[in-house]
Amino acid sequence: MAARLFRNARLVTMADPASVTPMDRAAILAVDGRIAYAGPEADLPAIASNAEAINLEGRLVTPGFIDCHTHLVHGGNRAREFELRLAGASYEEIALAGGGIVSTVAATRAAGEDSLVASALPRLDRMIAEGVTTIEVKSGYGLDLESELAQLRAARRLADERKVTVSTSFLGAHALPTEFANNRAGYLALIRDDMLPAIAAEGLADCVDAFCETIAFSPKEVDGVFAAARRLGLKVRLHADQLSNLGGAALAARHGALSADHLEHTDEDGAAAMAAAGTVAVLLPGAFYFIRETKLPPVDLFRQHGVRIAIATDCNPGTSPLTSPLLVLNMAATLFRLTVAECLAGMTIHAAAALGLAQDAGSIQVGKWCDLAVWDAESPAELVYRMGFNPLAARYWRGE
User: Fold this and answer.
1) What's the CA gap between 203 and 339, in Å, rounded?
2) Dihedral of alpha carbons 179, 185, 188, 193, sign
3) Is 269 exposed, middle or buried (0-12, 13-18, 19+ CB in 10 A)?
4) What residues contact residue 354 under an 8 Å CB cut-off, 6+ apart?
5) What is the mean predicted confidence (pLDDT) over 130-155?
6) Can you give the pLDDT at residue 332?
7) What phi-psi label fits residue 203: left (phi over 0), alpha (psi between -120 and 50 degrees) or beta?
8) What is the pLDDT of residues 93-102, one digit of tens each?
9) Which of 199, 245, 243 is nearest to 225 (CA)?
10) Fewest CB within 10 angstroms: 71, 167, 366, 399, which?
11) How high does pLDDT run on average in the chain?
12) Closest CA to 72 of 143, 162, 168, 165
């Protein structure tokens, strides 16, 4: 039995998502990577006397960050499209002209699995350096079975290369590949009948995702994909209501989705449906900023209906080339007016719920993995307030 004691901490457990007041002179005991005690140092159990002790010297301790929405594994970049956008082209115009997701598909298909791992690791390392201990990674840049499998295998391999928990999502319904430009039904059948069974058989996806939007897939088309996923026992998530209101939030709720993500155009019916289903709202301020959106997500509606709010980088090559969870905290507060507590819950306990991992991660509580971020910061507000500043002093994944 390996035991490790973290003592002299200023502890923010996030067990209560609304409370970010640190507990002074606190301690955390980890046994075999899981938390056996978290609370006042004066109340430590006797087993702690045999543990390896680490003095955190009064530093602030939070749960390790969880980035619950990324497209981390991909080939190439889209800096040229950024130039076009600066010149006035819209996201939709670029996509309809053959750019956007389809251009990344070509680069990803050409890359190969080893290259995908190698190019993703530097992006992952930047996130780890800011306290990330769990990350979600989507496919969706392959759009054929071989390339989607390569993306998902590459994502799984990241957990072999680094001490980090990786959750994977199959996003075959991300865009229509060029070879199916005149055969939407054929591509959707390929997803349902070939891709999903193969991916499920290999255990490569924890969830199935889809992009429900005017430039992607309709609610009816997503319905078919999600029904097939559920038959295979796979959980679902949805890119919803980013550019228009197609009722994506309500669609996600009908399928019991873990999360609906983006949500700038979600209406009250959608927010109420998400609340009833327990679907988490994942807000992505990096994409909002990068494509110069002006329609704010309905944060007040989510608050009124009791929808849990998570936040994430949405790291991707086209609309959010962002690898800083700390900057996401600031963006969520500045752009979306989230409170400090909402920001921290959004990157910890609510992010864990968005991945179906709240039983094991997201807060510092007995029984969960000992995933910690240790900060040279006076208060939790400092993590949200600063920009371009990284006060991480140490990061522990499963107690190590």
Assistant:
1) 38
2) negative
3) middle
4) 68, 69, 237, 258, 259, 280, 282, 310
5) 98
6) 98
7) left
8) 877 776 778 8
9) 199
10) 366
11) 96
12) 168
339-354 tens-digit pLDDT:
999 999 999 999 999 9
Using DSSP's 3-state secondary structure scheme, residue 32 falls into: coil
DSSP notation for 215-273: TSB-HHHHHHHHHHHHHTT-EEEEEESSSS-SSHHHHHHHTT-SEEEE-TT--HHHHHH
CB within 8 A of 37, min separation 6: which ones? 27, 28, 29, 44, 45, 48, 366
Residue 59 clears pLDDT 90, i.e. is over it: yes
Contact indicator for 27, 40 with CB cutoff of 8 Å: yes
Which among 105, 129, 50, 139 is positioned nearest to 397, based on CA atoms?
A: 129
State pTM to two decimals: 0.96
CA distance to 75, 134, 138, 154, 265, per residue, from 114 (Å): 11, 22, 17, 7, 38
Residue with tokens 């507060």: 333
* Structure tokens that stand for 117 in this block: 């791992």
Task: Name the residue among 238, 339, 227, 337 with its Cα closest to residue 281.
Answer: 238
Q: Does pLDDT of 1 surpass 70?
A: no
CA atoms within 13 A on the CB side of 301: 18
Q: Are strands 23-31 and 3-11 parallel, antiparallel or unpaired?
A: antiparallel
Q: How far apart are CA 173 and CA 209, in angstroms?
A: 7
Other beta carbons less than 10 A from residue 367's beta carbon: 9
Measured CA to CA, the distance from residue 35 to residue 23 in angstroms comes to 17
**Counting Cβ atoms within 10 Å, is residue 379 exposed (0-12), middle (13-18) or buried (19+)?**
middle
Amino acid at 63: P
| Cα distance between residue 248 and residue 346, in whole Å | 21
